[in-house]
Amino acid sequence: MATVGIDLGTYFSSVGVMTGGKAEAILNKDGTRATHSVVSFPSEKETLVGNIAYECEFLYPNETIKEVKRLMGKEKTAITVRGSSYSPQEISAMILKSLCSDVEREREFDEPVEKAVITIPAAFNSTQRAATLEAAKIAGIDVLGLAEEPLAALVANGNLTDYVGKCISIVDIGGGTSDGCTVEVKKDDHGKIILNCICIVGDSHLGGVDFDRALFEHILKKDFAGVSLNAEEKVELETKSEIAKRKLSEKMEVEFKVMVGGQRQKIHITRKEFEKAVSEELERVQKFLDEMKAYKIPDRVILCGGSTHVPKIEAMIKETFAGIPVGGENRELAVAEGAAILAQMYANGAEQAVFEKTDMDADKGAGNTGDDQTEDGQTDKGENGSGENGSDQDSTQMDLIPVKLNMVCSRSYGIGAFVHADKIMVCNVIFRNEAVPTVRETHSFVTSKDGMSECDFPIYESTGNERYVELSEAEKIGMCTLKIKGNLPKGTPLFVRVEAGIDGVLHFTGREESGNTEITAEFKTKTLLTEEELETAKQVVDDVYAKVV
Ligand SMILES: Nc1ncnc2c1ncn2[C@@H]1O[C@H](COP(=O)(O)OP(=O)(O)OP(=O)(O)O)[C@@H](O)[C@H]1O
Ligand SMILES: [Mg+2]
């Protein structure tokens, strides 16, 4: 059974596989390792996915879907093309299917890709994470685990043993998201490496596509004031602006030509102009960096994501973390490679271990530690990881180092409830940057009528850490409905148990205090799919995918 790591990016997606104990991003059919996350429907009979969809966008500007990652967790009917509506999960599933087919072709796997670790921005909220899991389900992929992109990049960047005793900040500025984690790397008495995530900082709407948009607007104003571009001309200018942006990371000025109104027009742009055009976005990058630094000053900064190539951004990072080494290998592919390492580790049953080169005898065979009691009282399964579990890594170079990842929650989650007779506020139950998995029971709520059969709790998320948050500062993400059995009298106390899983997805259960009986809870968001909708989505995606050319 094929097992891979998938970086499902806003702009580019990549798939990592393990070969000979080394992670490697595989080539797509165009011979590149990064594939555009684009789907296009040129006709009722054809579907294009990947680079070909990106290249044909100018032919089908209204039938091409880009940046679907930004829609994850949003309305399930968010996308309409050729009169049909698609959920972001369905479009993402088509991208996932295409990536898996690249692996099958490239690696000549006899079996289809079935198991994968899929990466997500650390700052993704519970619904975005759950939507990603749904996309994988629709694509027929068994998800071994979701992994935060910065953490996958950390795993791919050098030996974790070298970082023991250090605090590492990973800054990932990609196509659509700016994301960061600060992680303390420790080693316990059994030789296990503990990655304690201290903070998740991020802006899931800030990345290369925003720089492209700002540059495009700047060029429109400068060179095409008062001119109305048609859809094709617009796509050409957008595409060439993005290429120009990348060239400006190397050069101080660039020139390119576009066809507008039947005439070729030359565009000249300088790096200074670009930096001015994206000044608002750069301010937001600075805010995110400052917030990250405020949590803890790291010993080292690792960069990943294509937009960290922008010289101004790299300079801002170096200035913010002045005196601290800043590095980062393979910034575009580190996430996919890290995901492949994590996927292999999960698939081997070594739930928390990574392969790495080691020459430290102390590390060798340190995996069979048996059950371990962690601080939070949870049993942490012993790893069978000493590099002898049948994997194809070169055992002379690679050992399996046991690793435990301690993650934190990317948002605060709470319930909207009356705090005074006339005031409803969000009462946070789980707090941002709190360790996950975590389980909380809310204060007591009471039934408002005799014999109620169900009771609704609106669920909100926010980025603040306060106990009570104004409704206006939080976003309602769904409703938790407690199904009450029996004929409870008015005023019966009810508890809601909220659990943020290791993957950051929320689960709810209820408890009725006097009888101590569990009450079933259903968490519904407008945006996640029901079992029935998932089945239909699989059919829709299979049908549409059968038309891929
Ligand atoms: N040399 C460069 N200079 C400036 N920008 C670049 C350069 N190389 C790539 N980029 C930009 O980086 C972005 C793609 O980076 P990456 O592949 O890391 O993003 P992604 O994984 O698709 O997005 P995300 O992780 O945010 O979902 C694009 O916006 C691209 O224009
Ligand atoms: Mg990325």
Please tally the β strands and state the result.
33
Give the class from helix and strand content and strand pairing: alpha+beta
Bound molecules: adenosine-5'-triphosphate, magnesium ion
Q: Quickly count the helices.
A: 11
Shape call:
globular
Contiguous runs where pLDDT drops below 50 for at least 5 residues: 357-397
What is the gyration radius calculated from CA atoms? Answer: 25 Å
**What profile does the largest beta sheet have?**
10 strands, antiparallel
Overall pLDDT score: 86
Q: Could you give the topology of this structure?
A:
Layout: E1 2-7, E2 12-19, E3 22-25, E4 35-36, E5 39-43, E6 46-49, H1 51-55, E7 64-65, E8 79-81, E9 84-86, H2 88-107, E10 113-120, H3 126-139, E11 142-148, H4 149-156, E12 167-173, E13 178-187, E14 193-203, H5 208-223, H6 231-247, E15 253-260, E16 263-270, H7 271-277, H8 279-295, E17 300-304, H9 311-320, E18 326-327, H10 334-347, E19 353-357, E20 372-373, E21 379-380, E22 398-408, E23 412-420, E24 423-430, E25 435-436, E26 438-441, E27 445-446, E28 454-462, E29 468-469, E30 475-483, E31 493-500, E32 506-512, E33 517-524, H11 531-545
Parallel strand pairs: 1-10, 10-11, 12-17, 14-22, 17-18
Antiparallel strand pairs: 1-2, 2-3, 2-4, 5-6, 5-7, 8-9, 12-13, 13-14, 15-16, 19-22, 20-21, 22-25, 23-24, 23-28, 24-29, 26-31, 27-31, 28-30, 30-33, 31-32, 32-33
Helix pairs in contact: 2-3, 2-11, 3-11, 4-10, 5-6, 8-9
This protein binds adenosine-5'-triphosphate (ATP) and magnesium ion (MG).
Residues 7, 9, 149, 174, 305, 335 line the site of magnesium ion.
